[in-house]
Design goal:
The protein has nine helices and 18 strands. It is of the alpha/beta class and 402 residues long. The strands form four sheets. The protein has an eight-stranded mixed sheet, sandwiched between helices. A four-stranded antiparallel sheet has the order 15-14-17-18. The chain has a three-stranded antiparallel sheet with strand order 7-10-9. A hairpin with a 6-residue loop joins strand 12 and strand 13.
Length: 402
């Protein structure tokens, strides 16, 4: 049902004069240069004893006048024991998409070490490290929403178009962040989340949403396809069938390399993720390499992978949302699609919003307070709706009720 609703929404918006077609942005490189800003997105945890806080590199196109741009947050690979935000893969991804008009970021996140991973407690240490990294990435997402409110959106992002992604371990982090919601943590993993501050984590920037609009997975995986449901955001994946580090189907990491003494959780790769997302009707796409192993996505980055991801995001962004070149959004809506409740984060202090159906009939009205407002949508039929502020009628946003 969800895939059908997305398809209907895309078809409607393509023909609507209310929505821009991005004017050439986001599909191809249209800028020659990018700038990089290094920020400390949280000071709760340190990168190392000699490097306080957790930093990220933020890339923006030089000379861009648009102030309401999609944001892509990437995390590096390295089996959760090595890697950094300035790896060649992260720099290439961030620069390529910034040149297309996106704001991009590459984050540092907490790691473990080889000695711990080789210990008798490797299962618990690996699991806890993954959950810690989810907490860190959520803090990075919240950092940008906090910046919108406190610094007048200094990075010029659209809070309704935030995507997370990464390669290998970074993709595992992004995948879990995008699909695990409150109440969906299995009992056997609850203790790891408890130690890391719960589903939202304790890595900083509390009070802001960590909701994302989609995930970008390069050789990524999740612990179980049971995490996937029809309310998950779109996912685009790239993986090789001969990946011996993170299996294309399901296996423990590194087990296909003959490293059987490691006791690590099973991870299900892009093949399984794609099949299940198709089965439950979640918009997604998968590019499969038949050879190249774990490195296939990064050795084919510029020729195949980036264009493939770019096409998916372009269709999603430019055929489903407005591109406002003048100002930051007044409010952010999540989850989208929603079921019985929808959250409206009041970013720029709009006072009232109305929801209209496809015939233009007002079906819901609500007054907003500053911050996050929860709206009851249980009385709405399944379908596509528009929500807009009565203070600024030209700013319309689309959402889907499941």
């Amino acid at each position: 049902m969800r895939y059908v609703l997305y398809a209907l929404a895309l078809k409607l918006l393509i023909s609507s004069k209310l929505f821009s077609q991005c004017d050439g942005r986001y599909e191809n490189e249209i800028f020659d240069e990018v700038s990089k800003t290094i920020v400390e997105y949280t000071d709760v945890y340190d990168w190392s004893p000699l490097d306080s806080g957790l930093d990220m590199d933020i890339y923006q196109p030089v000379g861009d006048t648009v102030s309401n741009r999609p944001l892509l947050i990437f995390a590096h690979g390295g089996v959760y024991i090595e890697g950094d935000k300035n790896s060649n893969t992260m720099v290439t991804l961030c620069e390529a998409f910034a040149k297309r008009g996106y704001v991009t970021a590459s984050i540092r996140y907490r790691l473990t070490n080889l000695q711990s991973l080789l210990s008798a407690n490797s299962y618990n240490i690996f699991s806890q490290t993954v959950v810690n990294s989810i907490s860190d990435m959520k803090s990075a997402v919240r950092y940008f929403r906090k910046d919108v409110k406190n610094n007048n959106n200094s990075f010029g992002i659209n809070t309704n178009q935030i995507f997370v992604g990464g390669y290998s371990a970074g993709a595992v982090t992004a995948a879990h962040l995008s699909v695990i919601d409150e109440g969906e943590v299995p009992e056997e993993f609850q203790s790891y989340f408890d130690k890391s501050g719960g589903i939202e984590g304790n890595s900083g920037n509390p009070g802001y949403s960590s909701e994302v609009s989609g995930a970008i997975l390069l050789a990524g995986a999740i612990n179980t396809i049971n995490f996937l449901d029809e309310n998950d955001p779109p996912i685009v994946s790239v993986h090789s069938t001969d990946d011996n580090t993170i299996d294309y189907e399901c296996a423990s990491p590194l087990s296909n390399l003959g490293i059987s003494f490691l006791d690590l959780p099973v991870l299900c790769g892009s093949g399984k993720i794609h099949d299940e997302l198709v089965n439950i009707g979640v918009l997604n796409d998968l590019y499969t390499f038949s050879f190249g192993g774990h490195s296939a996505p990064i050795i084919n980055l510029e020729g195949t992978v980036i264009p493939f991801i770019s096409d998916f995001l372009y269709d999603l962004i430019c055929q489903s949302t407005s591109v406002d070149e003048q100002k930051s959004p007044l409010f952010s809506v999540y989850p989208n699609p929603c079921q019985n409740y929808m959250n409206i984060e009041n970013l720029n202090r709009t006072n009232n919003v109305v929801v209209v159906d496809l015939l233009g009939k007002i079906v819901l009205e609500s007054q907003l307070n500053t911050g996050v407002n929860q709206i009851n949508t249980s009385a709405l039929y399944e379908g596509v709706y528009f929500i807009y502020s009565t203070d600024e009628i030209s700013e319309k946003q689309l959402f889907i009720k499941n």
